[in-house]
Design a protein that fits this description.
The protein is mainly α. It folds into 2 domains: 81 residues, Endonuclease Iii, domain 2; 107 residues, Endonuclease III, domain 1. The chain contains 13 helices and no strands. Helix 3 packs across helix 13 and helix 9 packs across helix 10. The protein is elongated and about 55 Å long. The N and C termini lie far apart (36 Å).
């Protein structure tokens, strides 16, 4: 199945995907993996020690998360957050859902700051939900490859967005987004991997962290942040 390509957002990190995970048991649940990563490489150990506990946990609200991803494409984090908050006001309880979205006029969607293109993407996403071509109740039990193939059927959702969904929403442990600019920059800065490295070389760079490459990616992103992601 062919997948559509979308540009990676300009931000080198993924703050916009990161919610606040307040569970007191999050750190303990990841301790075994973090211990293993620290043993594999002293450079990764340094990043982990500097950045602190891994805090990602599975999230609910898949539709809202995908809407938020579309809204935030090619925007600075602050601008994306502002437009998304306006977008939420279009829904009765402030929580986007596909049935309500399809009843909102294009003019009202444009009125909250969405472009024509993003408006079309959001409508297409809602249509896939209502047609059940996105089996949202089964997403958490589908393989990574199945999730990517399903989500990239939606206009405006490419492989990168699907991978971010796997990491930040489904909390899958072994996703390695080689097309992400932040990953490339972090690998260049700390692991001497050229920013222009081939995809094969980038895949190879992630091999030492398999089957926990999502954890490695998260720490690589955080290593670029002046302010820790919460």
């Amino acid at each position: 199945m062919a997948t559509k390509r979308t540009k990676t957002p300009k931000s080198s990190t993924n703050t916009y995907w990161c919610g606040r995970d307040n569970s007191p048991n999050v750190g303990a649940s990841h301790e075994r993996v973090i211990t293993a990563l620290r043993k594999k490489d002293k450079r990764m150990r340094g990043i982990i020690d500097e950045c602190g506990p891994f805090t990602l946990v599975p999230k609910r609200g898949y539709f809202a998360a995908l809407c938020r991803a579309i809204v935030g494409q090619q925007l600075a984090v602050a601008a994306a957050a502002t437009i998304y908050e306006r977008f939420r006001t279009l829904f009765a309880n402030g929580r986007p859902n596909p049935d309500e979205l399809l009843r909102v006029s294009k003019a009202r969607l444009r009125g909250v700051g969405l472009s024509n293109q993003k408006t079309a993407y959001l409508i297409d996403l809602a249509t896939h939900y209502t047609n059940r071509t996105i089996p949202h109740r089964r997403l958490k039990s589908m393989s990574d490859e199945e999730v990517i193939a399903t989500l990239t059927e939606v206009k405006g959702i490419g492989v990168w967005t699907a991978q971010m969904f796997l990491i930040f929403v489904l909390a899958r442990p072994d996703v390695w987004p080689t097309g992400d600019l932040g990953i490339r920059r972090a690998l260049e800065r700390t692991f001497a991997v050229s920013l222009d490295a081939s995809l094969d070389d980038l895949e190879q760079a992630g091999e030492p962290w398999r089957p926990f490459r999502s954890y490695a990616a998260w720490y690589l992103w955080r290593s670029l942040d002046a302010t820790p992601v919460k």
